[in-house]
Amino acid sequence: MKFTMNRSFLQNKLATILTAIDSKVINPIFSGVKIVAKATSLFLTASNGNISIELEIPSADKDAELIIQEEGGLVLPARFFNSIVNKLPQQEVVVEQMSNQQVAISSGSALFHLNSHSANDYPQLPKVSQESILEIPVHLLEELISETTFAASKQETRPILTGVHFVLKDGIFKAVATDSHRLSQRILPMDTKDTEFDIVLPAKSLTELSKTFRNKDEFITISMTDNQALFKTERISFYTRLLEGNYPDTDRLIPKEFITSAVFDSHYLNAAIARASLLAEKATSNIVKMQITAQRIVLSSQSPEIGYVEEELECRDVTGEDLTISFNPMYVQQALQAFKGEEVKIQFISPVRPFTITPLNEKPLIELITPVRTN
Amino acid sequence: MKFTMNRSFLQNKLATILTAIDSKVINPIFSGVKIVAKATSLFLTASNGNISIELEIPSADKDAELIIQEEGGLVLPARFFNSIVNKLPQQEVVVEQMSNQQVAISSGSALFHLNSHSANDYPQLPKVSQESILEIPVHLLEELISETTFAASKQETRPILTGVHFVLKDGIFKAVATDSHRLSQRILPMDTKDTEFDIVLPAKSLTELSKTFRNKDEFITISMTDNQALFKTERISFYTRLLEGNYPDTDRLIPKEFITSAVFDSHYLNAAIARASLLAEKATSNIVKMQITAQRIVLSSQSPEIGYVEEELECRDVTGEDLTISFNPMYVQQALQAFKGEEVKIQFISPVRPFTITPLNEKPLIELITPVRTN
């Protein structure tokens, strides 16, 4: 194997696939990046066993300045190869397999010899049916991921809740995540009526997925088997395992009727909650209280050791019964971030029942938060 | 005590004095910031017991928008006060002492009450003779600090070596630091012939000192007692304790005669050493080898597990005998950073004697590095 290419281009592509590499790998082969040179393309593959990314660099891509001098494949230590490429002195880099299981990487007067592994030692990528079952724009998939993954559980006590539930049925694509204290659901109406799926993707994989696809204008195809999903654009294939088990029925958790509601600017409310939660940081329980009356809404919090804080909130369209409710400010702050400064409506049933945050615009996004019971 | 002032201005000043606050304070009073309002100025003081910073904000300073409504003093929890000021909604902030040991901080509709301590509980600042004994520009003091502190020891085995030796004698101001593996010395000729001092300042204090004085055009006055030094500009007083003990005689360590030398661009050499040390990171000893012959200079390094690297260096004016020398690349890289891209001359005596790095320009800066013995 021998090829010459542009250093900055290679650096950029390595950064993308390194997303898949964990510092704590179980199988040492996963600390490597597989490089395969074929007649007209170079292929880079990285994996941590849970997710795998394969990236194609065609020699037709002018920016790559890629010349395949000899076909072949091998596995290089990923972090070292990446650090080396980052620090090479010239823009031209030559990678060449030597006879003795070593790979020469040269640029200008700098010459590295790295010990390599055989490409045959690298695990095969999963076989996922290439029959396309859903195609959506990258930017929409990203939006959906950023609106839901934060609500997935970080605890492994109920592993299924560390995932995000993706359901396609009757032309409705629904993504929902809950850690049993809060829930976030986004719906996308789709054109396809004849395909269906019901899978649970690890929230961690979705976060990595978001970092992988950088061209926001591209379309991405989602296909899957029983235990794997493949997200694919023209040059990037992102594989992730699925979570096994049944995701709880979350539809029944979403209330339909409310007794109190108010409208806020989501940025402003987020900042006010950040202020109110400043003193709560050190308290045994991190709680902010909201008192709603027809006249005014007041946020407050206290910590006997440090002091207390209160602030009358700017809001509009306050309707319904007076209510005092306490909540974990982090849950509300993370939910509000999904609305990016838009106006939101918050609706309450009672001090002990979950309340909902929804955008005033048409977007079918709903955030549900369970309050904290206080005495 | 009551005053009103501009939030951004206060935020900026708090950031400066918070430099003095440690997260691991021994005396809990040091987690507080002392605020004293006098007729025409507000004073902020913070300390960690080793260094103390006092900052004056005169009400004459238009940017401060400071109005002293009532004189007085108190101590507020520094981190909380700072977080609150950072997050207040309006540019006007009012701080007012209440009757019940609480302080009200308000801005717009946000109101905080913080528990405070009496200003009398706060330790007095050290009494340091205000007789000025040395005055130098802030930017020059900063340069001197950045050129020496990195070479001070991080180990507490010989506490005196964790400091930087400041000596003023016969009109020569010398700053020198060594951790016994490398040494860095900067000399400044001064106008004053009649004052002398010989002190050792903790390197950590000097690093904090660098962050404190932001107006590079000001002059700074250095005065001292037996165990304290005071660095003072018009509005900022920075106190630090001195290290006790005798600093070793470093003059005798600096060689005068050499057998081999070469001239390099310091930026370029630093990048080449960074490349050579890439594979050394994981080796048991982090060593880079330099082979000097009349024809060429080659840097190399190897790690049996990972591979090897070699690079022929661009250099000029190579003189003297052939030599092969090994060194810890970090020591040379940190030393080279002090030269900011200028050309440097490296001079060697033998593979086992310290070598020196000096700038080609006139600046009296010398870096000394002990090589690693290899077999």
From TrEMBL, chains A, B:
Q: Which GO terms describe its molecular function?
A: 3'-5' exonuclease activity; DNA binding; DNA-directed DNA polymerase activity
By its UniProt entry, which InterPro entries does this protein fall under? DNA_clamp_sf, DNA_polIII_beta, DNA_polIII_beta_C, DNA_polIII_beta_cen, DNA_polIII_beta_N
Q: Which GO terms describe its cellular component?
A: cytoplasm; DNA polymerase III complex
Chief place where the protein resides: cytoplasm
SUPFAM superfamilies referenced in this protein's UniProt entry, alphabetically: DNA clamp
Query: What subcellular locations does the record give?
Result: Cytoplasm
Q: What does this protein do?
A: Confers DNA tethering and processivity to DNA polymerases and other proteins. Acts as a clamp, forming a ring around DNA (a reaction catalyzed by the clamp-loading complex) which diffuses in an ATP-independent manner freely and bidirectionally along dsDNA. Initially characterized for its ability to contact the catalytic subunit of DNA polymerase III (Pol III), a complex, multichain enzyme responsible for most of the replicative synthesis in bacteria; Pol III exhibits 3'-5' exonuclease proofreading activity.
**Quaternary data:** Forms a ring-shaped head-to-tail homodimer around DNA.
Identification of the protein by name: Beta sliding clamp
